[in-house]
Amino acid sequence: MRVAIIAFNDLKKCPYINPYASFCKENGIDFDVIYFNRSGTVESADYPTVPIEWKSGRKKWLNFLSFRSLVIKHLKAVAYDFVIVLTTMPAVLLGGFLKKRFKGRYLVDIRDYTYEKVLPYFWLEKRALSGSAMNVISSPGFKNFLPAGEYTLCHNASASYRIPAEYSFTPNPSGRIRIGYVGTIAYKSNCKRLIDLVLKDERFDFYFYGDESGTKEVTEYVASLSSDRIKAFGAYTPAEKVGIMENIDILFNVYGNSSQLVITALSNKLYDSFYMKLPLLTSPKTAMSEEASVYSFDVDFDDKDILEKLYSWYYSIDGESFGKYGDDYLDKVFKDQDDFYKKLKATILGN
């Protein structure tokens, strides 16, 4: 049996490849990862890859059409038994071909809100989802904007988090609170607003770990401040992530609530929080805030006393209760993952 996994970005930006790659390896299935090499850098992987070139200087929509054409050409040339499509944009681009050539033999994995409010896009997405054998979502909230149908939940949680860890919540005894943004730096206006607040309050530090998407306005702003309390450390490897989180006190996830994307998505920081026992900074009226419960703090930038309230909240957290809530939550997450793998196995091997 041979499976094609289609990703719409560089490998390092598609961690959701991992559950499917692991599944194929564990079940002795030959597979290729066909991915959009947007950065132009050569990436190594422990599985076969088929990079599709992104041509700089070419309009985005032309690159999209080129991706569609080259992927279809490859799918026609190789005898694949099943296709896994990661995210809705490639599903929309390939939907007609997949429904005709692989009906009942492909899967669509949805990781974010995209352009569902655009009616033609929604119709194309509905067509792609209607011909698949299985549709996967990473947050229950996605059902609010997707076409009606059956969806299987697959969390963004790292498989390594299945192994119990000895982490517990202990407030920083120094009286200082280290806020950490761990991951690709985006949501830049919120980052800069919090930087400005932290700059005036010596009880807080704000550290950035990861590359910055697009323009470098956050990292350049941090550099211009020359502050020991506000620093950007640049990219890190996956193996370094846990060590980074061991040296911060609160995880930053203040992404706002102005779109369905940030309202409904569950960031991997939710699972990081519960595994490491690190409380979260969130935006109000979001799935992240609701799932993290009292172990997240909603940031209201219009509140002039917000850091005073944050400080009091942090030092009032009950570590034992936080630990139990986090462990119970992760137990449920991995029960969902086990159910996902069972259905994935029946769907793919059944074909």
Give your account of this protein's structure.
With 351 residues, the protein is an alpha/beta fold. It has two domains: 2-154, Glycogen Phosphorylase B (Rossmann fold, 3-Layer(aba) Sandwich), CATH 3.40.50; 162-329, Rossmann fold (3-Layer(aba) Sandwich). 40% of the residues lie in helices and 17% in strands. It has helices at 18-26, 60-77, 88-101, 119-130, 188-199, 217-225, 241-245, 260-264, 268-276, 287-292, 306-314, 319-349; strands at 2-7, 30-37, 49-53, 82-86, 106-110, 134-137, 152-153, 177-182, 204-209, 230-232, 250-252, 280-282, 296-298. The strands form two sheets. Strands 3-2-1-4-5-6-7 form a seven-stranded parallel sheet, with helices on both faces. It has a six-stranded parallel sheet with strand order 10-9-8-11-12-13, sandwiched between helices. Helix 6 (217-225) links the parallel strand 9 and strand 10. Helix 2 packs parallel to helix 3, helix 5 (188-199) runs parallel beside helix 6 (217-225) and helix 9 crosses helix 12 (319-349). The model has no long low-confidence stretch (mean pLDDT 94).
Sum this structure up briefly:
With 351 residues, the chain is of the alpha/beta class. The chain has 12 helices and 13 strands. Strand 8 (177-182), helix 5 and strand 9 form a beta-alpha-beta unit.
Q: How is the secondary structure organized here?
A:
Elements: E1 2-7, H1 18-26, E2 30-37, E3 49-53, H2 60-77, E4 82-86, H3 88-101, E5 106-110, H4 119-130, E6 134-137, E7 152-153, E8 177-182, H5 188-199, E9 204-209, H6 217-225, E10 230-232, H7 241-245, E11 250-252, H8 260-264, H9 268-276, E12 280-282, H10 287-292, E13 296-298, H11 306-314, H12 319-349
Parallel strand pairs: 1-2, 1-4, 2-3, 4-5, 5-6, 6-7, 8-9, 8-11, 9-10, 11-12, 12-13
Helix pairs in contact: 2-3, 3-4, 5-6, 9-12
